[in-house]
Amino acid sequence: MNTNLRGVYYCIRSFAPLMIRGRTGHIITSHRSPQECASERSAYSASKWGLNGLTYSVAEEFARPQHSRLRSMSGSVHTDFTPHAGKSPEKMLQPGDVAHVVAMIVTQAPQSFASEILLRPTQKP
User: Mean pLDDT, to the nearest integer, of 4-14?
Assistant: First the structure.
């Protein structure tokens, strides 16, 4: 809860005033889909549901006069930190896949807003 939810909350709280004053900026939260509840990991799953709610609520607040954007991106990515035992790493999303999507959404035209992105691999890992 401290890392997955409170940590993001405190980061948003720290950066939001700068984004509001500058009338620009992007915050992208990233997590596994909260619909994927994990057995014996209820606190983790709850923190991800909370992160989703926090992201949507703050995105609505930012969307009004500030012209800043907050988005939620979800997908299961292979890293050394989370190896996903039993899955084929070469078929999983890679950090570069996420970087590509981030680059796309931060350069999005000002009249549109992609608020939620679900990133999936093309093959079942």
Answer: 92
Q: How do residues 19-63 score in pLDDT, each as one tens digit?
A: 888 888 888 887 665 556 666 678 888 888 888 889 888 888 877
Residues 6+ positions from 46 with CB-CB distance below 8 Å:
1
Residues 61 and 31: their CA atoms lie apart, in Å, by: 21
Distance CA 12, CA 6 (A): 10
Q: How far apart are CA 12 and CA 27, in angstroms?
A: 8
Handedness of CA 38, 44, 48, 53 (dihedral sign): positive
Long-range pairs of 49-56 with CB within 8 A, sequence gap ≥ 24 = 50/1, 50/4, 50/5, 51/4, 51/5, 51/8, 54/5, 54/8, 54/9, 54/12, 54/29, 55/29, 56/115
Rg (CA), the chain: 15
Residue 7 has pLDDT above 90, yes or no: yes
Q: What angle do CA 80, 54, 41 make, to 5 degrees?
A: 45
